[in-house]
Amino acid sequence: MAIPPPPALPWRKTPLLESAGLSRAAGCRVHLKLENLQPAGSFKSRGIGYYMLARLREHSDRPDSDRVSVHFYSSSGGNAGLAAVHAAVALKLPCTVVVPLTTQPRMIEKMKIAGASEVVQMGASWQEADEYLRKELLGKNAGGVYVPPFDHPDVWAGHAGMIEEIVEQLAGTKPKAIVCSVGGGGLFSGLQLGLEKAGWENVPVVAMETIGTDCFSQSIKAKSLVTLPKITSKARCLGARRCAGKALELGLRPNVRSAVVTDEVAARACLRLANEERLIVELACGVNVAVCYEDGMLARVLDDDVSKDDVVVVVLCGGSDVDLDSIQEWRQEAS
């Protein structure tokens, strides 16, 4: 049967806006890449949407393909699953998500409201949820298509598109650094590949994590993949116990700077961002602005002075695992 072209892309170009408050705190011109404005509320819409669209195009090229039979299956700590659901709805196809037991009810409810066919909770971490999806669900559906949350070249290619936008939005001005958080390493890998394509491979990438999710930092130090015994940070959406092999490969490049902060520092940054910029983000995103808010931290991480004319891009990766109750909880813990 003839397959009509898919609808609009399941991700969007996002603004890059200079922040007066962050710039004053960091001593340079801090620009926020507002990935919190993606359809699913986080950067995941890019990589996941790109991957799913690529699989759908492959499927449509088969002589006997039947687009209606495709059913996407995503394993996720939260945001990747929500992105998969949003993309599937945009592509008019079903999507089942398996999340670990640590996933908050609000995230599960958001997936259901967005249009998930089913949301299943299984396992103590993403790894266990992913194993259950592969063994118990995916193989039982002939039209099942697996959607990895971070470890696939098409996911990285989707995130790499962010650099193309940044190059255009900065009118070719090369930034002093780009700041992003790292969980499994999909965003980081995409940014690194995008910088290479743009000829900006010497631009430092500051990779931020929290204590208790810092598999990437530990892997860089060991120069081999390190698997955390468990996730002990409240930044659940950074909760991959082991980063992608590609992330480690790209993390050993000389332009990479790794930094790890406590949950308290991330929460303090989230509260200040909410107060000054009217932007509510989860801890997994708060780590990115923390490096600008904490006195002198950006210069220390870069091991270089920063001046008022330097441009630093912070990927405000977003995330939907946050609400006003989160803000209140962080305030009480800080008092």
Polypeptide structure, described:
It is a single chain. This protein has 335 residues and is of the alpha/beta class. 44% of the residues lie in helices and 15% in strands. The chain has helices spanning 20-26, 44-60, 79-90, 105-114, 126-137, 153-169, 186-198, 215-222, 245-251, 263-277, 283-293, 297-302, 324-334, and strands at residues 16-18, 29-34, 71-75, 95-99, 118-121, 144-147, 177-181, 205-210, 256-261, 311-316. The strands form 2 sheets. A 6-stranded mixed β-sheet has the order 1-2-10-7-8-9, with helices on both faces. A 4-stranded parallel β-sheet has the order 5-4-3-6, sandwiched between helices. Helix 7 (186-198) links the parallel strand 7 and strand 8. Helix 10 packs across helix 13. The mean pLDDT is 91.
Largest sheet: 6 strands, mixed
Shape: globular
Spatial strand order of the main sheet: 1-2-10-7-8-9
Q: Number of DSSP helices?
A: 13
Give Rg in angstroms: 19 Å
**Oligomer description:** single chain
Distance between the termini: 63 Å
| Percentage of residues in DSSP E strands | 5-15%
Helix/strand-derived category reads: alpha/beta
Low-pLDDT residue intervals, each spanning 5 or more residues: none
Number of strands: 10
Order of helices and strands: EHEHEHEHEHEHEHEHHEHHHEH
Give helix % range: 40-55%
What is the residue-mean pLDDT, rounded to a whole number?
Answer: 91
